[in-house]
Design goal:
alpha+beta, globular
Length: 86
Amino acid sequence: MRTITSFTKGIFGFPEGEGERFPDYPFHYNLHPLQNFKKWMGYKSKISFRNLLNGRTKLEKGFSIQKASPEEAGVKESGDINKYAK
């Protein structure tokens, strides 16, 4: 599960309710099946949260699941990702 806090209210939606889901602190919860998440983490490209959510399936407000591979989501490999490391 990936929790996104930046820009979620206007772009991705966020859940409202009790417990961890406070409306004043918006979150978007994105689920990834483990094998698919491994593909994303092994992909040779800089992955932003926007890339990570391309092709997701919305479940309800504030929740989605990513079943698409990086290729299916339109992310292109950039080769050497070490240039992004700091």
